[in-house]
Queue: 3 jobs
Job 1
Amino acid sequence: MTLSQLKTKKAVVETGLKLLVQIKKQERIKSLRGKLKWDGDLDAMRLDQ
């Protein structure tokens, strides 16, 4: 609890679980790398800005 600056065990556990869910979501997104087809023109998109 010292490292996280949280006051209760419950808060530490809840924060840890939220972090775990976030990491798992990121892993799922990373697993799609190179598997999705994208048709777009980055040069044209950059000119629109």
Job 2
Amino acid sequence: MSTGFSLREFVSSFNDNVISNALKYHTMQSKPREQHDFVLLGKEIIKLLPPERDIFDFYLDTDLKVVPDFDILYFGRETIINIDLKDEDGIKKADRILMKFEKQKRLLRLCSSNVINLVYCADKNKVLREINGHLSPFSIDDFAKLLLKYEDQKEKLSKPIVNQVELLTPKDYLISPTKQIDEFVAGEYWLSNKQQIISDRLASPGIVSVKGQAGTGKTLIAFDFIRRFYQRRKILFIFPGYTREIHSKLKEHFPETDFVSGKDATSTNLDDYDVVLVDEAQRINGILRIFINQWAHNNAGRKTIGIFFDVEQRLGRKDSGGIVESLANGYVSDNLGELYSLENSFRANKYITGFVRNVFDLNERPKADVTSKKIREVVQIKYFADADSAIPWIRKLIDSGYIFLTLTPDSHGTSSADQFVKLSDVSKNTHEIIGDEADNVVTYLDGSVKYSKDGKIIKNSTEYYFTDHESYVNMTRAREQLAVAIVNNRDVFNAITEIVLGLKNDNANKH
């Protein structure tokens, strides 16, 4: 958790060339241009302060990815001041600035009902205030008086001020359109700039391919387009697996859109639609892939085809993310469309993600702020000699609100999931959770996976599905808490405790 700068502290740190270490101490990052502009503003405010006064609790470059980052946030007792820094006159960029404030406003109001949006124009040394969707001059003198007023209100606070925006978790501001339908239909969600660009692009003819790992918001783009255009376009949404209740509910809200399982898509007349969207395209079978590819080539000039896929998510032998990516690159080469890449996972808990990635590749160490202590606050592991020994613990977690995820059963033979058949009525398998997530997840790693010589988790079974990839998917479904039963796999348990969590070194230091 970062601590805020005071105004005099920041200006002093910048002027004496210690700002880099000061930012590290406060666990913040900031662009050099923004540091320079904030110092200019800070100096002007300091001129107007009594010599014994300072202004506290400024935070730089807060970035939650789902909205444009916040250049400067000031926190009062009940007020947030959002300062956008500009090198040149903000009036020239008013529309862009106001759009940025609008995107940020709803998220800021999760933290405070009183939000003030300001722009500092460094070239003109002036401040603008956003009022009812317009930018108006706001004197630096009035700004300094306002800050002193808010500082006075903080004098009797028993707890220190913190960056409330930084404390928000994905659960606070992200929704699942397949779970929170009412919120989705009401438009109560955020798209990043890139997501918005892609969604808008789907309104024009061509083949739009979107590549991204789990949690990057691919499906939300497709659903956003449906929500905005279902009355103006005849849309077909193709998805892998079987039709579920959620698809019937979506059909009720968007009657002009058809939701069709990949198993039924080849018997659907694609010519009846203006837009065809294919979700999780790496999981559709080869016959359907060829069918869609041919139709896309023939209709790219007058229809829209949206293809959403994850190259890395291969759960079985028929999954074909690499083939889909090659086709997407071919469409670009043939000038039939564009290929977009989504890189930021919005729903991910960085401590869980850092832990899981390191478990599956012992060489992929987490970032410095993802410490063993932080990981152990959100991840728990337990070793059991067999599945029956693990079941009481798993049941206890289920009773407390966790969802239990198993690997997908093998319909052709024995599988890892068989050992948890006693919990089949209270569990989901990997294929049932794809594209979704849960607050709290309990799952397992057993003898169906092992470490390769280069420290990577690989499959160690003869069952149909890729147990290593499925285990990764299951563990990355957790948003808040992850629990993992290590079942009769000492190598994996020792690697997690000694290398990932560093407990071997901890113990060594005690002796």
Job 3
Amino acid sequence: MARVPLTTEPVVSSRVVVNVENIVLTPEQFFRLCRDNPELRLELTAQKELIIMSPTGSRTGSQNMELSFQIQRWTIQDGGGIAFDSSTGFLLPNGATRSPDASWIRPTRWDALAAEDQQRFAPICPDFVVELRSPGDAIDD
């Protein structure tokens, strides 16, 4: 029986950054890009870098779920605000579209948004954000 030699695979970063600065990518186009590629986790920086992230590992996914649960529980007990999970993108004032691991917005700010804006990447910076640092994350991420 033939034996397959063991090989070492290089460790690949959990994200890829693509410079799209010279491509005019409107918020609507970026929303459609994300919608058309639901298997990808995409973010856009203020410097017009497209970040493509791999799915989280199982432990990180469990920790993200716990974060989302705790914020949702707090929202229900407190009786106010809207909680969001890691799949939610927000169009920030600096032009970036980011998806924090968990976030929360005061109801008065959320209700002030047009219904159409609430259906897309809402143009709002959440009042509270939690970002879980995963083992593969760098400090400058």
